[in-house]
């Protein structure tokens, strides 16, 4: 976190706000933060590169929000409480308007999620905009929502809705014919993901396995099944499709719902006895939850459509290194 | 830390080794690590960009070492014990030989420093090689070596030697005439920095202020003076110059020693009563330490040369955003 004079100016102007009591924030070799007794530190990191993970002309305020949101989504997927974050930022040049908007979007979410920015690194490089966010949270290790914790007989739940981010991405990439109305209805889900961090903390010790649907429901649920050595049956008709998908081609909707990534909502499993409790926790956190299937012993992911007819999937999740 | 199938292959092949007992490593939404009772988490992050922070043709094994070393140096500068690290890596293409060498260099230091790699993110981007390392360590908050903790009357110490990394950098950048012998003697210090993490932990609760000399002694010591609202008098003749600097132009040596960055050794202050104790701790850790001056009340950094004659400095530290 060492920095030259101009770098200090940049940090001071946009990325230095007082750290909470008990924390040491920006300005020393390391930041310091407390971890509560009985808890472990949960940590995750995401690297976002211009042109690869976001468009060059993206609204910088939305980008600041999303750079943190995708990481808070990882904490939520462990049932962890956000504690703090670090930001590394490389920019081709100084641009006050861009930095102001980016930091506004970043801090607005950091404040709401209780995840203060306590350190980072900035640099200038012609390589384009590079954003790396590290989040840290805390969770009681015996209550963490691990991918390997699904049990046969568990319900499978998802939070929020499915499909909108994928449709927005297809429209922006020209893979669907231009449709202003559809883009306006789906783009907020892509640009301003709102992971259910409050609800997720209440699932710690209640749910079994969990992850976020960043790579698409099929692929991500597949990780739970592999780690937990089990299978799943999904009821396609139960999936909480985003309302903007109504009236679209059925196969397109199916791909968007099952394979569309960038969702940053949770898929989790829990014992059937927990149904009422989970619904109550979700209501309390103002989080929409939907039961979409169950965990079975037989390996594989089986998706059943109308009348229990299996749906054949010709889909693959998003691969960051393809 | 979500990842597509090919990304999983990459992570599995080069960056997945078993996490220590009590840790959760690569493979879930977050990594989990324990922080000892009475300790806080110390964390820092460094972003390294090809062409900006390292040459494109750098030995990848040295790069893997250095990417972690510069972060462990930040932990050392707080007196913190390394706990774990996260690695974000963006590459223009897959290259097995490069990845093997990079991961070898990274893991070799991680193993020696007790700083296991427990998570990360990988992506492919034409933007060139981007490396972001987050380190986490633990320290008792009341013992952390803060920049603001220097006291009038303190000795000023440095570990290791000064100047070699700067000379190597000048040679590689063509700012000094080619000199194979000099490059061979100085480059190891630039490419394979060895921060004194073992010794640094023993300074926690013993020394007062500390930081690493990543931006050059003058500039970095200046941070301590500013944060601690005091001044310093340095004895230039006491500085532990790297032996390879013998016989070089006196002004060049002075610039390299006082303003040369990329050192990743510590500058710290401690009460005069601690002299013998600090020397004993250094001997035990096989770390070279040198007293180079003292903290005074009058603001400013005064460097005295032969016979106590003030040395005028026309120097500036390295600025990552200039």
Folded structure, characterized:
The structure is a homodimer of 322-residue chains. Residues 1-5 and 315-322 of chain A have low confidence and may be disordered. Chain A is globular and about 65 Å long. Chain A has two domains: 5-142, 60s Ribosomal Protein L30, Chain: A (2-Layer Sandwich); 147-308, Phosphoribosyl-aminoimidazole Synthetase, Chain A, domain 2 (Alpha-Beta Complex). Chain A is an alpha+beta fold and 322 residues long. Chain A has helices at 5-14, 60-76, 96-113, 164-172, 180-191, 197-203, 217-228, 250-259, 275-284; strands at 31-33, 40-49, 81-91, 117-124, 130-139, 155-159, 210-212, 231-235, 266-270, 289-296, 300-304. The interface between A and B is large, with 80 and 81 residues. Strand 2 (40-49) of chain A pairs antiparallel with strand 1 (31-33) of chain B, so a sheet runs across the interface.
Structure, briefly:
The structure is a homodimer of 322-residue chains. Chain A is an alpha+beta fold.
- Report the structural category of chain A: alpha+beta
State Rg of chain A.
Answer: 20 Å
CATH architecture of the largest domain in chain A: Alpha-Beta Complex
Report the total helices of chain A: 9
Shape of chain A: globular
Low-confidence parts of chain A:
1-5, 315-322
Biggest interface: chains and residue counts?
Answer: A-B, 80 and 81 residues
The CATH homologous superfamily name of the largest domain in chain A equals PurM-like C-terminal domain
**What is the count of β-strands of chain A?**
11
Helix and strand pattern of chain A? HEEHEHEEEHHHEHEHEHEE
